[in-house]
Amino acid sequence: MDNELGTRLRAARTRAGLSQRQLAKQSGVTNATISMIESGRINPSVGSLKRVLSGIPMGLSEFFADGLLDQEQVFFSKHDLIEIGKGRISYRQIGASLKTRKIQLLHERYEAGADTGKVPLTHDGEECGLVLRGRVEVTVGDRVRVLGPGDIYYFSSRIGHRFRNVGKDVCEIASACTPPSF
Question: Which residue, 136, 121, 128, is CA-closest to 170?
């Protein structure tokens, strides 16, 4: 029996960070069923497979997508960055999908006067950044500092924070946050 289905299931389960027992519990099937599918001893019906995948969660189309078995991308060119910002602030993300990643890396670009807004941002996790060029005012809680090239910030993202380009030139930052928040 061809075991492509079992190999795909193991890859999807591993990428989701689940053990066989955890997937079985989350999908409502037995651990033995997961084990037998992954080892190629049984070939589940479409309905059974959908039930198993609901524990990841993942749809059938994503499960059968060609890239599931490929290794995760390791190297990126500047052309691989995905724009997820808008307006006067550009957030270019490293990698199209962060489903299996624990860190989000961004190349941020703030036009002169650009601001993340008067309402502070908050989310779970931590973030840090290195100012590459320009000047940015970073507010974290009640602390405010203007940073320039080579300066770094690092804080708990649960604390309200804001970024504002206070210079006359574009400001660029290489930043990271965990877990991915965009």
Answer: 136
For residue 166 the two structure tokens come to 């206070």
Q: Taking the model in full, what pTM does it have? A: 0.62
Distant-in-sequence, close-in-space partners of 161: CB < 8 Å, separation ≥ 6: 120, 121, 122, 127, 138, 139, 140, 141, 155
pLDDT at 157: 95
Q: Report the candidate in 141, 126, 120, 129 with the shortest Cα–Cα distance to residue 91.
A: 129
DSSP structural state of residue 99: T
The 3-state DSSP class for residue 69 equals helix
Q: What is the pLDDT of residues 12-53, one digit of tens each?
A: 888 888 899 999 999 999 999 999 998 888 888 777 788 898
What single-letter amino acid sits at 106? Answer: L
Angle between helices 46-54 and 31-39 (to 10 degrees): 120
Location of structure tokens 């649960």? 158
Q: How many CB atoms lie under 10 A from the CB of residue 30?
A: 13
- Per DSSP, the three-state class of 9 is helix
User: In this structure, are residues 46 and 56 in contact, taking their beta carbons and an 8 Å threshold?
Assistant: no
- The pLDDT of residue 67 is above 60: no
